[in-house]
């Protein structure tokens, strides 16, 4: 039976590239997007395009019921940043908006999809983090809300690992590096095709032994 992946934020950037490469490998893919009409690349790749706004957790239970199929690997990829790169630019509205997508979304979507993950053969949850969320390694100079949200996402990975790994669920954080996407900008050193190819290879092999880890696209562990 083919592995089934669910990718959030699948309409562009790393999410769209994940869909393309996973479909090339013959995997079944749910491409979760806010606007299915704008998911041309995912649809052309043969993914099952499904509507999902990760900032609306009140819709997650109905979303899970609509899938009604095992999920082997959930990739919590959807994320947003902001322009709050200094203390003076911080606002409650910005912090709440970024955390709603980057933290509340992955946490509550994983909760809603847990029954489908338990029906899957692999039972893997991947939280797409960032080196900017590393307390030890972040250089600063980027969105406070984004960096803090990725640190919080890493905490969710550890908490979920400690609760769920005993029942066979693998939970990891993954750092994709700085990529040339809409968020990363043209100056980023990594090509999304290359970094996603490396991450797909990681996802092919991870299992219970890696649960609770913060891994980079290069396969190396990242500092929390």
CATH fold description: Rossmann fold
Using only C-alpha atoms, the radius of gyration works out to 16 Å
Q: Please state the average pLDDT score.
A: 93
The number of helical segments is 6
Q: Determine and state the CATH class.
A: Alpha Beta
Distance between the termini: 36 Å
| Helix amount | 25-40%
- In the CATH hierarchy, what is the architecture at level 2? 3-Layer(aba) Sandwich
Count the domains.
Answer: 1
Which residues form runs of ≥5 with pLDDT under 50? none
Main sheet, how many strands, which sense, barrel?
7 strands, parallel
Strand line-up across the major sheet: 3-2-1-4-5-6-7
Helix-strand string: EHEHEHEHEHEHE
Give the beta-strand count.
7
Shape assignment:
globular
Q: Look at the structure and name the CATH superfamily.
A: NAD(P)-binding Rossmann-like Domain
Q: From the helix content, strand content and strand pairing, which structural class follows? A: alpha/beta
The proportion of strand residues reads: 5-15%
């Amino acid at each position: 039976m083919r592995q089934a992946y669910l990718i959030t934020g699948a309409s562009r950037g790393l999410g769209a590239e994940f869909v393309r490469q996973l479909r090339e490998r013959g995997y079944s893919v749910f491409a979760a997007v806010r606007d299915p009409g704008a998911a041309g690349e995912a649809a052309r790749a043969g993914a099952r395009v499904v509507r999902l706004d990760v900032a609306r957790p009140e819709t997650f239970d109905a979303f899970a019921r609509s899938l009604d199929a095992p999920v082997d690997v959930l990739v919590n990829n959807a994320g947003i940043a902001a322009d709050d790169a200094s203390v003076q630019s911080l606002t409650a509205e910005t912090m709440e908006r970024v955390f709603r997508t980057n933290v509340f979304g992955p946490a509550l979507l994983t909760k809603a999809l847990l029954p489908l993950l338990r029906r899957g053969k692999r039972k893997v949850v991947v939280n797409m983090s960032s080196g900017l969320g590393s307390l030890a390694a972040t250089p600063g100079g980027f969105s406070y809300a984004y960096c803090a949200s990725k640190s919080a996402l890493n905490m969710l990975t550890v908490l979920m690992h400690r609760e769920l790994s005993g029942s066979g669920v693998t939970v990891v954080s993954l750092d994709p590096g700085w990529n040339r996407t809409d968020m990363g900008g043209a100056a980023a050193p990594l090509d999304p095709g290359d970094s996603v190819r490396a991450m797909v290879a990681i996802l092919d092999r991870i299992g219970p032994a890696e649960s609770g880890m913060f891994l980079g696209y290069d396969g190396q562990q990242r500092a929390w």
